[in-house]
Amino acid sequence: MLDERPWAEGTVPGMAARSGSEFLDRLASARVHVEIQGQTLTGGVAGHPAFRNVVRSYAELYDMQHDPAHRDVLTYASPATGDPVATSFLVPRTPEDLAKRSQAFKLWADRSLGMLGRTPDYLNSALMALASAADWFAQADPAFGGNLRRYYEQVREQDLLCTHTLIPPQANRAVSGSQQAGGALMAHIVREDDNGIVIRGARMLATSGPFADELLVFPSTVLRNTPEDKQYSFACAIPNDAPGLRYLAREPLDYGLPRHDHPLGSRFEESDAVVVFDDVHVPYERCFVLGDPELCNGFYTRTSAVVHMTHQVIARTTAKTSYILGLVSLLAQAIGIEQFQHVQADIAEVITTLETLRAFSRAAEADAEVNEFGVLTPAWPPLNTARNLYPRLSQRFPEILRKLGASGLMATPTQADVAGPAAADIETYLQSATLGGADRVKLFRLVWDTCISAFAGRQALYEYYFFGDPVRMAGAYLASYDREPYKAAVSAFLDRS
Ligand SMILES: Cc1cc2nc3c(=O)[nH]c(=O)nc-3n(C[C@H](O)[C@H](O)[C@H](O)COP(=O)(O)OP(=O)(O)OC[C@H]3O[C@@H](n4cnc5c(N)ncnc54)[C@H](O)[C@@H]3O)c2cc1C
Predict the structure, then answer these.
(1) Distance between Cα 370 and ligand 1 center (Å)
(2) Is the pLDDT confidence value at 255 over 60?
(3) Segment 269-288, tens digit of pLDDT
(4) Ligand 1 centroid – CA 199 distance (Å)
(5) N or C: which end of the chain has fewer CB within 10 A?
């Protein structure tokens, strides 16, 4: 079992739980190839205006691991060295372990108001579950199980930040990825040599890719592989600055404006990038599945990785919903609209979502069971329900904030105005029932950045799609849900005389 083994052969002990400056130092020396706004970066990502604020937000998370107020929750003793490593790597064996993982997720998620989707704990949780299920991977080749274990240990001991890329480019969804443009578009194995594979093509869409340390090229959580997809059916890990790997980053939504003006975009703009593989060589020891559609289809479910990832996700979506509840309550209070019944109904809707998520999370932990690999695994039905509901429920938040904020969301002068010649007008004419003009503008700019700005638009898109297409997720839910007892109960009723 993981964590009870001696230090894995060939794994280099690292620095254990990193601080923010250790994260930034490593990034400073990385030569990640990023194409952005007509510019080619081959390093220097941490200082680039598109990334410098978000990497500082990530650095704050790493610093929390060393903060005496948080370190007991955010770290545990490495089974290999005894040094503190991140709690998201902890293999849960007991309810206390599971609770500790959950508390650690919450601490980080609260810090970013749930706006950072790819904090390291998301993929650390996947790696923990995958490595624990190493024996399942070994059925194809014993080497794969060992590779996964060693890779998990390396990421844990060096506290590396992983991003991942799962799905084919969006060229023609009427055919499978392997049939698009004669199969040339989707990342695939073009050849093998003595010590590894060579990948060519592209994949969508690595959030936080440009500033990660490692890229996980994993199967989709939703799309199924068929035998024709053999060449495309693999899982491996690549250092982010590997030769031939490049990121096509989208236009940044952090415009370098003061935090007052863009309170969220200036902190939590995570970046998303298409990943291009220009004959990227991956050594065999970094490969976990090769040419095996069946293993790819069971990758997340047979290993419980999807459960542990969703356990992290529900902590983040709960944090975001808590933030929305605080925000909408301050907004309603500020302009004296809480006595209106439809306003109460909207706020109650946010409360309902929040309490629904909390109940799912609690049920999942209370009904956790040890899986076949000895890992205490939260119950899947509540988490699966949460992951099917949230893409839809979360779309209501910006709608509610826009409806309740109304013209106030456009009466939002900038910091320069608040401190400039218009200061007196702002203080007088933009005052609210509970706030002076400057404070009201500050609050409303936060509402604006949550429901109207480009940052807000991207957040809504993210919540809808980041775990896969909700339509196909619902289809998978239906296919896996045992409805026979329900059908039998109705049939029995029909048969009653
Ligand atoms: C902000 C953001 C961040 C993301 N971050 C990551 C990341 O970090 N890593 C990663 O790997 N991926 C990431 N993704 C990608 C995400 O996994 C996909 O968006 C998701 O799987 C949907 O795929 P798609 O975007 O290609 O949509 P498409 O599959 O192209 O779907 C487009 C539309 O067509 C419909 N459609 C298409 N095909 C079918 C079908 N067969 N049956 C029914 N309906 C169909 C869909 O329902 C949808 O309405 C991210 C996406 C977003 C928007």
Answers:
(1) 32
(2) yes
(3) 999 999 999 999 999 999 99
(4) 22
(5) C
Is the CB–ligand 1 distance for residue 213 below 6 Å? no
Which residues have a Cβ under 8 Å from the Cβ of 428 and sit 6 or more positions away? 437
| pLDDT the model gives residue 10 | 40
Tell me: pLDDT of 34 over 60.
yes
**At 437, which helix (H) or strand (E)?**
helix 437-451
Question: Is 469 a pocket residue for ligand 1 (Cβ < 6 Å)?
Answer: yes
Span 58-109, pLDDT tens digits: 999 999 999 999 999 999 999 999 999 999 999 999 999 999 999 999 999 9
Ligand 1 centroid, distance to 204 Cα (angstroms): 9
Q: Are 203 and 279 in contact (CB under 8 A)?
A: no
Radius of gyration of the chain (CA): 24
For residue 462, give every residue at least 6 positions away whose Cβ sits within 8 Å of its Cβ, in sequence order, or none. Answer: 117, 207
Q: Whose CA is nearest to atom 17 of ligand 1?
A: 468
Residue nearest to atom 21 of ligand 1 (CA): 468
- Statement: residue 5 has pLDDT above 90: no
Q: Which two tokens stand for residue 415?
A: 């910091």
Ligand 1 pocket member 165 (CB < 6 A) = yes
Is residue 452 within 8 Å of residue 409, measured between CB atoms? yes
Tokens encoding 174 = 């009427």
413 touches 428 (CB < 8 A): no
Distance 396 CA to ligand 1 centre (A): 20
Q: What is the pLDDT of residues 309-334, one digit of tens each?
A: 999 999 999 999 999 999 999 999 99
pTM (2 d.p.): 0.96
Strands 245-249 and 234-239: unpaired
Probe residue for ligand 1, chosen from 272, 465, 467, 471 as the CB with the greatest number of ligand atoms within 8 Å: 465
